[in-house]
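Here is the promised in-class demo. Please do not try to memorize the tokens; focus on the logic of going from shape to residues.
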């Protein structure tokens, strides 16, 4: 086992736990002191290593990026097999194809070639296999509790459906995910899958999930684990495509200049993975954060104030979030890895709904793409360039257009297949929308398996206990 300054040792942003190994961090999910787990240090990738990584295929690159964070918690060959198995489920050998968006300065990373047609598959196919491997080694059972604003739930379910020793409970806001997103979750017939539509917003579901994880006796008695981006393995798997994307854009553009990466985000998990890649030495000049009308994150990077508002339903529902669960990880590093101050500020935020920081971080810029911009962007790129964007990717492209970085190409992350959001695309393009996917069309005839419950701790805990008793 490495020492406490090793990148394969994990500590809490709130400083209340002793360092744990990679596998222990994966199974713990949320740190037991209420904080989030982060590596004790980030490995620095040297220039000659980067040059070698450029020539690797996606699974091979994933193995190299992940290996220092895993350390000796898993044998290298086991990690390699897990990575290969996870990306064998994608419909393209590239896993994440990189394509030009406008023929000159904008590129797009297609992150939707996995089983549920969303970027969450990149992490959750890996995490599902990782959970199964750890349980195979250690024995026991794992009961996963997750909250989703759309894509995490289906990707998590498809990562663990039918796996021995695992039950999964997914909370999602009733009527606030797209019909196809719901069908990708609630039509899965495997008996280890349990979908809970809550009467409220995603933030209500996320709040209940975190409070249940902080009920340590309940968590331990019921063997709860996390699939949300509070789980470090989720972040780690996403770090890979920042290296991959930057390398491919440099290759396609014929330039060795670092790349700007534009990330549509609501929970700060995807863009935090980009921050990790930057800290490791990826050829990235700047991360451009894009939000919709739920703009707590873009307001923070432009004003220094992180202030919770009211969730507004939009055409990009996976970003309809006001409390970003991964923001605490970034805050920890922004505060110079001061766990005490991080804990104080987060506890204050939980009470007041606001916090402020002085200074700026040149790694980030931020902008907002509202509904009008989203619709206009979908229409423009389809009609002018023959590229069909989903409403989340369109938010990112709109912000990227408004925030070019001199001397740099911009890579926009396209986080879901547009077929998952046919109503939004049809609103932009009119009737006869091309936003379809055969796998999604087949879901429309299947029955839903879900319960509808209020987002309260006693009700959700009672449902988990009774369901597990029925599975025994």
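The designed amino acids, position by position:
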């Amino acid at each position: 086992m490495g020492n406490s300054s090793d990148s394969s040792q994990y500590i809490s942003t709130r400083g209340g736990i002793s360092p744990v190994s990679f596998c222990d961090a994966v199974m713990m999910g949320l740190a037991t002191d209420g904080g989030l787990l982060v590596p004790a240090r980030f490995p620095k990738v040297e220039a000659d290593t980067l040059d070698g990584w450029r020539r690797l295929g996606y699974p091979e690159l994933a193995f190299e990026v992940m290996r220092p964070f895993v350390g000796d918690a898993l044998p290298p060959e086991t990690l390699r097999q897990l990575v290969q198995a996870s990306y064998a489920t994608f419909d393209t050998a590239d896993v994440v194809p990189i394509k030009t968006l406008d023929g000159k300065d904008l590129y797009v990373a297609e992150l939707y070639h996995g089983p549920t047609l969303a970027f969450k598959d990149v992490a959750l196919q890996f995490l599902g296999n990782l959970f199964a491997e750890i349980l195979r080694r250690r024995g026991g059972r794992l009961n996963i509790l997750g909250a989703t604003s759309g894509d995490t739930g289906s990707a998590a379910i498809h990562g663990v459906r039918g796996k021995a020793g695992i039950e999964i409970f997914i909370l999602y806001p009733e009527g606030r995910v797209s019909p196809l997103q719901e069908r990708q979750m609630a039509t899965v017939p495997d008996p280890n899958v349990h979908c809970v539509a809550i009467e409220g917003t995603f933030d209500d579901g996320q709040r209940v999930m975190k409070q249940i994880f902080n009920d340590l006796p309940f968590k331990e008695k019921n063997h709860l684990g996390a699939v949300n981006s509070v789980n470090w393995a989720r972040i780690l798997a996403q770090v890979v495509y920042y290296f991959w994307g930057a390398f491919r854009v440099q290759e396609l553009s014929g330039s060795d200049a670092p790349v700007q990466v534009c990330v549509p985000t609501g929970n700060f998990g995807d863009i935090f993975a980009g921050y990790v890649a930057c800290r490791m030495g990826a050829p990235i000049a700047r991360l451009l954060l894009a939000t919709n009308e739920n703009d707590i994150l873009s307001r923070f990077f432009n004003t220094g104030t992180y202030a919770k508002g009211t969730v507004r339903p939009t055409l990009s529902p996976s970003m309809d979030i006001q409390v970003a669960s991964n923001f605490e990880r970034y805050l920890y590093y922004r505060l110079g890895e001061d766990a005490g101050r991080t804990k104080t500020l987060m506890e204050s935020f939980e009470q007041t709904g606001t916090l402020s920081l002085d200074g700026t971080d040149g790694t980030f810029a931020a902008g907002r793409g509202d509904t009008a911009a989203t619709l206009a962007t979908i229409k423009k790129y389809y009609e002018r360039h023959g590229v069909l964007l989903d409403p989340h990717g369109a938010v990112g492209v709109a912000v990227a257009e408004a925030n070019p970085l001199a001397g740099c190409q911009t890579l926009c992350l396209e986080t879901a297949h547009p077929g998952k959001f046919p109503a939004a695309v049809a609103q932009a393009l009119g009737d006869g929308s091309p936003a379809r996917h055969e796998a999604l069309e087949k879901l429309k005839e299947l029955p839903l398996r879900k319960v509808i419950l209020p987002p309260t701790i006693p009700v959700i805990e009672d449902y988990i206990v009774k369901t597990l008793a029925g599975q025994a």
